[in-house]
Amino acid sequence: SIVVYCGPMMASKTTRLFIDVERARFRRERIVVAKPRVDTRYDSECVVTHMGLKLPAIAVSDAAELELVTSAADFIAVDEAFMLPGCADVLVRARNRGASSSVSTLDVSASGEPFEESMRLLSIATEVIKLYAACVECSAPARATRSKIGSPPTQRDVRIGGHDIYEPVCWRHHPSSKAVTVSDSSHVSGLE
Prior knowledge:
Helix content: 10-25%
Radius of gyration: 16 Å
Number of strands: 12
Shape: globular
Largest sheet: 6 strands, parallel
Structural class: alpha/beta
Distance between the termini: 30 Å
Strand order of the largest sheet: 5-2-6-7-1-8
Strand content: 15-25%
C-alpha cells in the first residue's frame, strides 16, 4: 500500500506518519524513514513535528538516493515528499516488490499551485487522507498554506520554513486567485 497524508501546513501530516511508523514497528518490519536533505528546519537528521516530536531519519537529496536507502525496507515513511521529484516512482517500485509506504506532503504551494510530485503521489496512492488545520483568520477548516512574508514562492522556488514563515488558512483567506478553485458559494453552503 501507499498511503498519502496531504494538506496545508500545521495539519498533523507528519504526526500521522509517526503513527504509521509505530504500527510498522509493532509488525516488526524493516523500516526506513526518509526526509529531503534540504529540509533542515528543526533537525537535519530527524523528522520533526511542529510540536517537537522527533523520529530519526535518513536525509536524501533525490529519488536515486531514496531508492538506494529503501531497497531492503518492508515499510517506507517519507516526510515532505513534494520536495523529492521521482519519489512516486520509487514508491511504486517498492510496492511492486512488497513494501508498504506512508508519505506526508503538501499538495498545494503557498502560491496556490499544486506540487507536481504530490499530484503524482495522489494518483498512485492506495489511500489518500486529506488533513486540515484551522484557519488563522476564522477557524474554518484550513485547506491552504499562506506565506507570512513577501510574495509566496512557486512550486519551483520552495522557501523552506515552519510557522515562522507560513500559516494555515481557508481558501476564502488565501491571497492567490489561482488557489480559489471553488466558487464563493461553497463557503456559504458549509463546504469551507
